[in-house]
From TrEMBL:
Domain of life of the source: Bacteria
Species for this entry: Salinicoccus siamensis
PANTHER family linked: C4-DICARBOXYLATE TRANSPORT TRANSCRIPTIONAL REGULATORY PROTEIN DCTD, TRANSCRIPTIONAL REGULATORY PROTEIN
Limits of the Sigma-54 factor interaction domain: 143-372
Keyword Amino-acid biosynthesis (UniProt): no
Entries under PROSITE patterns matching the protein: PAS, SIGMA54_INTERACT_1, SIGMA54_INTERACT_3, SIGMA54_INTERACT_4
Keywords: ATP-binding, Nucleotide-binding, Transcription, Transcription regulation
Start and end residues of each PAS domain: 3-74
Gene3D superfamilies given in the database record: 1.10.8.60, Homeodomain-like, P-loop containing nucleotide triphosphate hydrolases, PAS domain
Leader peptide range in chain numbering: none
Protein name listed in UniProt: Sigma-54 interaction domain-containing protein
InterPro entries xrefs: AAA+_ATPase, AAA_lid_NorR, Homeodomain-like_sf, HTH_Fis, P-loop_NTPase, PAS, PAS-like_dom_sf, Sigma_54_int
Record lineage: Bacteria, Bacillati, Bacillota, Bacilli, Bacillales
Pfam (any one): AAA_lid_14
Length: 454
């Protein structure tokens, strides 16, 4: 009696189902997990021919019994809702087949996630292809968003592009100011040059020659043919002065004169050159700070800030976090040749709760880490949480995303569902370990898994 009970407990200890038949193809054992998968009671089918209970075409165990061989099958559809990995082995005693045993591991969630990923990849790739084909002329094609704030920015840009007024784009580091500057350019001068220059990256003593260019023989070591500057390169198109707040003070006076008179001189030249460009400037500094400081001329600021377009930081538009996350997840997965992994709602909620001081640039950094270091079929949320510890940021506390009219009961159920999913992921869907960690019985856990379709 004890041995029978011990064997039964050992068989049912793991998250596997077992079915055993004798040489007459009759069911002699049907485990508890098998009962749950097939929604049948062992007492109702024990002793019956297995082909009377299940369709014989799907019975791998019969093939093992009749052909005396081990058979393994991945992703077998056991029921309309459940997928399993199967291993079937004949039971041979003294050279004679006495029966067969089949083991099934429920991999429904893994199969569903792979199918979701496949569908997502297909949809994104189809959409990407359609966008390239249909909207190849769309000046906003590189701007990924969902929020009303960015839709408002796009409307501003469309209005501004109809004029030749100077534009100043403001926004924190990493929001993508150059992308929006490029959109301004593409709306008006798509086939003309777009010349960006980062004012903070050029040594002050080289700034004048970089911007204005120089004539041949202008100084020792100069190119013998001279060199055209960024203003000349931007002729007929757009000149983007990124981080204009870092422009040296002496250059501000000279550049202001260019904007007022529409002419300039190359370094070392007495020949006046015409300045013909659309000016778009960008800065991560606030207008008020530029006016209050001593390192930027207010008269130049008034000249470049005819139209101000402000790009809101990522923390003010959490809807865009999710859109940008999935966009860069696909791009970076393809970049490294890694199969696109599943991102669960827990991870997405964590990302949306974070305040993103580095904006889109920081988000791209995180996606890259997740793609490179996650194992298996899931993106690992712990990689993001470790990053927060690394940069000394508090870990966000998240709640399930709810509709506006979700009642308290719905909130509790969603919270329970998300937590159960997290615990199942943590223990690799091992029911015994998960149930112990949650301090609930296995039947209770199975009931909740069915309830929330986990």
């Amino acid at each position: 009696m004890f041995e029978t009970h011990l064997i039964d407990e050992l068989i049912n200890f793991h998250h596997h189902s077992f079915t055993i038949i004798n040489k007459n193809e009759e069911i002699i054992y049907f485990s508890r997990r098998a009962e749950e998968i097939f929604n049948m009671r062992a007492e109702d089918i024990t002793g019956r021919k297995i082909s009377d209970v299940f369709h014989k075409d799907k019975l791998v165990i019969l093939q093992s019994l009749r052909n005396k061989r081990t058979i393994e099958k991945k992703g077998h559809q056991a029921t309309p809702e459940i997928f399993v990995d199967i291993k079937s082995v004949p039971l041979i005693i003294d050279g004679t087949v006495q029966g067969a045993v089949v083991s099934e591991v429920d991999v429904t969630e893994e199969v569903r996630q792979k199918e979701e990923i496949r569908k997502l990849q297909s949809q994104v790739e189809t959409l990407s292809s359609s966008v390239k084909k249909i909207h190849s002329e769309d000046p906003f094609k590189s701007i990924v968003y969902k929020s009303a704030q960015i839709e408002g920015v796009k409307n501003q840009i469309r209005q501004a592009a109809n004029t030749k007024a100077n534009i100043l784009i403001t926004g924190e580091t990493g929001v993508g100011k150059e992308l929006f500057a490029r959109a301004v350019h593409d709306l008006t001068f798509k086939d003309k040059p777009f010349i960006p220059i980062n004012c903070g990256a050029i040594p002050s003593h080289l700034f004048e020659s970089e911007l204005f260019g120089y004539a041949k023989g202008a100084f020792t070591g100069a190119n013998r043919q001279g060199n055209k500057g960024k203003i000349e390169a931007a002729k007929g198109g757009t000149l983007l002065l990124d981080e204009i707040g870092e422009m040296p003070i002496d250059m501000q006076v000279k550049f202001l004169r260019v904007l007022q008179e529409k002419h300039y001189f190359k370094l070392g030249s007495t020949v006046e050159e015409a300045a013909d460009f659309r000016l778009v400037s960008a800065t991560n500094r606030k207008i008020a700070d530029l006016l209050a400081g001593d390192d930027f001329r207010s008269d130049l600021l008034y000249r470049i800030n005819v139209i101000n377009i402000h790009i809101p930081p990522l923390r003010e538009r959490p809807d865009d976090v999710e859109s940008l996350f999935f966009y860069y997840l696909l791009q970076i997965s393809q970049k490294y040749g890694i199969e696109m992994r599943y991102a669960d709602r827990q991870l997405v909620n964590l990302l949306k709760e974070y305040h993103w001081p580095g904006n889109v640039r920081e988000l791209i950094n995180i996606v890259e880490r997740l793609v490179i270091f996650s194992g298996g079929s899931h993106l690992d949320p712990d990689i993001f949480l470790k990053y927060l510890d690394e940069v000394d940021e508090a870990r966000p506390h998240t709640y399930p995303a709810l509709d506006g009219d979700t009642a308290l009961k719905g909130f509790i159920e969603q919270a329970e569902s998300e937590y159960l999913r997290h615990m199942l992921d943590k223990f690799d869907s091992n029911i015994e370990q998960t149930a112990n960690a949650l301090s609930v019985s296995r039947p209770t856990l199975y009931s909740k898994i069915r309830k929330y379709d986990l």
